[in-house]
Structures are given as structure tokens and as C-alpha cells.
Specification:
Radius of gyration: 15 Å
Order of helices and strands: HH
Strand content: under 5%
Distance between the termini: 30 Å
Oligomer: single chain
Structural class: mainly alpha
């Protein structure tokens, strides 16, 4: 199956946003499991 690439995927701001999301997820993994559901909130906030 052919991968479809969209024009916005080449934008620097899009790449930085993806890096930021990765950083948030990595940081959340370091939180204690019972941190007032902050980990769940940060991962599901849209």
C-alpha cells in the first residue's frame, strides 16, 4: 500500500509539534502512577 504524504508534514511547526508530543508522553511516563490522573489528563487533552 502506498503511503500518502500531506504537504503540512513538511512544515517545521508540524515537526516541532510531533517532537513536543513525544516529549510530553516521555515525561508522563516518569510520573508516579497516582499523580491525580495528571498523566491521563495530559495524554488525552485535545
Amino acid at each position: 500500500m502506498e503511503d500518502v504524504k500531506f504537504n503540512f508534514e513538511d512544515l517545521t511547526v508540524y515537526q516541532k509539534a510531533l517532537d513536543f508530543v513525544d516529549m510530553v508522553y516521555d515525561t508522563c511516563e516518569k510520573f508516579p502512577k497516582m499523580t491525580y490522573n495528571l498523566q491521563k489528563y495530559l495524554k488525552n487533552k485535545k
